[in-house]
């Protein structure tokens, strides 16, 4: 018929149950490792210098665009990619800025994060002028997405004053 129960079979059952629990634990461990890796994929490091200092020498016939990301209490470890006219420039970390010197004319600044919509800011720059472009994350469909905004000089200069310069690009 079937197996009969005996006191001798109890240790065997306990061993089998322990093995099943171990297989289940290992499965969840591997799933956790894979999910953590996917989550951290958006995290990267950016080499940062000192706190904001104004660029004094902008070549004649060019414009200065400060692209900055003020410190916020969320998405602190995520680096967003900045492109200008489809050319990758740098990754922007929390509390950082990049002084970008460019020729006058229309430039298209993009900020993207995989899985979310791309922020797009067309900006008409004039020689001899300074612009402040703020990048900040807002809640998206799956996670935070980037937003780019041209800021008034007075507000941009205040917000960027505590940001650290991006050294690597």
Poorly predicted runs are 38-43
The CATH topology of the largest domain turns out to be Immunoglobulin-like
Order of helices and strands: HEEEEEEEEEHE
CATH class descriptor of the largest domain: Mainly Beta
Q: What is the distance, rounded to the nearest whole angstrom, between the alpha carbons of the first and last residues?
A: 74 Å
What's the helical proportion of residues? 10-25%
Q: Rg to the nearest angstrom? A: 26 Å
**Spatial arrangement of strands, main beta sheet:** 1-10-5-2-8-9
Largest sheet: 6 strands, mixed
Number of helices: 2
Strand content: 35-45%
Total tally of structural domains: 2
Based on the structure, what is the oligomeric state of the protein chains?
Answer: single chain
Structural class: alpha+beta
Overall pLDDT score:
83
Shape: elongated
The total of beta strands comes to 10
Q: What's the CATH architecture name of the largest domain? A: Sandwich
């Amino acid at each position: 018929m079937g197996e009969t129960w005996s006191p001798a079979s109890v240790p065997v059952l306990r061993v089998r149950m322990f093995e099943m629990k171990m297989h289940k634990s290992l499965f969840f461990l591997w799933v956790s490792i894979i999910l953590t890796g996917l989550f951290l994929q958006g995290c990267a490091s950016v080499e940062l210098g000192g706190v904001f200092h104004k660029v004094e020498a902008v070549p004649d016939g060019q414009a200065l665009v400060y692209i900055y990301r003020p410190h916020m209490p969320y998405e602190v470890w995520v680096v967003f990619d900045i492109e200008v006219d489809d050319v990758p420039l740098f990754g922007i970390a929390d509390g950082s800025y990049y002084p970008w010197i460019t020729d006058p004319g229309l430039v298209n600044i993009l900020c993207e994060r995989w899985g979310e919509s791309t922020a797009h800011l067309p900006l008409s720059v004039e020689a001899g002028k300074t612009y402040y472009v703020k990048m900040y994350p807002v809640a998206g469909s799956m996670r935070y997405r980037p937003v780019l905004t041209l800021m008034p000089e007075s507000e941009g200069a205040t917000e960027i004053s505590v940001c650290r310069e991006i050294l690597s690009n």
